[in-house]
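Note to self: user wants both folds in one dump. Writing first protein now.
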Amino acid sequence: TVTFIRDAEGAGVVIDNNVTIDFAGHTYTVNAAANESNAFVVNLGKNVTLKNGSLQVASTSKVAIENLIQNYALLLNLDGMKLFGSNLNASNSCVLSNNTGQVNITSTTITANEAEGTHYAFSAGEYAGYNPSWVVIRDNATVVNGKAHLVGGNIFGNTNAGLDLVAEKSFTAA
């Protein structure tokens, strides 16, 4: 477990190990992309938990970063997190972009960029070479401010999260 002891600002992060990151009520502000246009990247096949804090992009990084979290994990747990997309790319962004694996969201607030353009709170995708992604909203305390983008993946759980769903492929609701 990695535990924050204060707010911090720094470069984007590539997570390539099974890990729990406990923000302990603190905020991490990303001021440069981890790779390409992503602030945090969770690599393929990992088990990762992000809990008890906030993650955002510095206002000076607006142009470069499209995704706050780009997820390829086998299992990503978000518990008690606040994910802010307000400073993501001004024309196209996704706070939590999921290409494969399962994401469990508990007591978390996800806020998309509200600027003009194409912006999503989170996506669930199915892409060539990957298993479909699964986004599971686990409780009534999770709040999604923005659209959910379904691109062949799966979204399950509490419908009280205020989902505004945009589907780009046909799907069957579970």
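First done. Writing the second protein, which came from a different request thread.
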Amino acid sequence: VSNLQAGENNLSANLDSVDYFPTQVGNKWVYFYFDAVPFFFPDTVEILGTGTIDDTLYYVSSAQNESNILFPKYARKDSAGNAYARFYGNDQLLYKIDASTGEQWQVTLNPPQTSGSEIMYTITLTGRDAVVETYSGVFQNCLEFELRTGSITEASYNVWLAPAVGIVRVDGWG
């Protein structure tokens, strides 16, 4: 379980905003991860800069590796606000902001030179108006996504995105 502890965004926290995946250089999110109370540890994700890959502008985060599906190292948005991530050289839809509730799509992590280690996630938008409570406060009108895989290893995560803030909570196992 991770909860947003504090955020420093270059955006106003306007709940009327439709930007669920803010990408401004300097944005920073601090999360607390809980394995078992009272054992928790903080983690910080920050947008460090931008870079162009194959003529596409990406925001580069402080995530440690290219396979981090929850907090991607390279991310971008399209004009509708949908969030894409670059995993091992492939641009893939991660959070479809304009999806209908129940709509599903696939993300495949296929590390190079590791035959048979492909991990496919099915992502589903499971809710459009969730209320999420974290250490930073209560967030209204959150989108809830489920990320589930059964390839190689089984894992399931729920991710909540709040307007003008981004990821505010992650629950899951795997």
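Dump finished. Worth passing along: The mean pLDDT is 82.
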